[in-house]
Amino acid sequence: MLRSDLLEHFKKFDTPTICNALELIDSRFRLHGFTTEQMVCADPSLPPIVGYARTATLRALSPVDPKKKREIGMAYYEYVASGEGPNISVIQDLDSSPGLGANWGEVNTNIHKALGILGVITNGAIRDMDVLAPGFQLLAGKIVPSHAYVRIEDTGREVNIFGMSVRHDDLIHADLHGAVVIPRECAEELPEKIDLMIRREKVILDACQDPGFNLEMLKQATSNSADIH
Question: How many Cβ atoms are within 10 Å of 152's Cβ, its own excluded?
Fold first, then answer.
């Protein structure tokens, strides 16, 4: 596990900032590692969540034996709450048309919050928007009214949420914009890159606030920004 102070530091910044800083470490992060579709955010006012992925898959299209559903469901709860945490549930809906049934509503968000889970990231559906557990963040593919035959299929496997591939214990940063995986090998270097990016942007933003701002000032500010290392 990474140092807790690193995770607390990452929570101070939004997910676009994390994405930009990762690009300074390796240009491959310009195209990989983050969600690429607009998602429903249950509470945009919540701060970013940063935690370790607990991955699972689900389906909602067809019936399943109730006893088997309960057994797999309890095994999932044991899994999602395992480890030192903090944890985030990352669940891929495997149905041909994801989101037929919502796995997430009043009851399940309260269960997860009570287990210490920070939130969920899913391509599936959510519901009960007015009675979700306070402070529990949800990023989902859609909002629907029914749970259909929704149930957990498997846990601990690699999943893909709108282009973001996630494995068990991956470090996730998420907010109203979407989510990104922070590779372990980049975590220690990331604070420095965040600071560098902010300093570069400040030069341009300060110039924009100047009452005499013009294109020449923009050119100079852009050049000065690029010279910051």
Answer: 21
Which residue bears the tokens 């903090």? 86
Of the candidates 99, 115, 157, 108, which has an alpha carbon nearest to the alpha carbon of residue 131?
Answer: 108
- Reading the block at residue 48, the tokens are 């970013």
Q: Which residues contact 186 (CB under 8 A, 6 or more apart)?
A: 22, 25, 26
Residue 171: strand, helix, or coil: strand
Prediction pTM value: 0.95
* Rounded Cα distance, 124 and 160, in Å: 12
Give which of 78, 85, 122, 88 is closest to 104, Cα–Cα.
Answer: 122
In tens, the pLDDT along 180-218 reads 999 999 999 999 999 999 999 999 999 999 999 999 999
By the 8 A CB rule, do 51 and 89 touch? Answer: no
Can you tell me the distance from the alpha carbon of 180 to that of 17, in angstroms, rounded to the nearest whole number?
11
Written as one letter, the residue type at 6 is L
DSSP 133: P
Tokens 């420095």 -> residue: 192
**Cα-based distances in Å from 126 to 26, 36, 181:** 34, 19, 22
Q: Which amino acid is at 114?
A: A
CA separation for the pair 203, 225 (Å, rounded):
6
Other beta carbons within 10 angstroms of residue 140's beta carbon come to 26
CATH code for residues 4-187: 3.50.30.40
Check if the beta carbon of residue 103 is closer than 8 Å to that of residue 56: no
For position 129, what pLDDT does the model report? 98
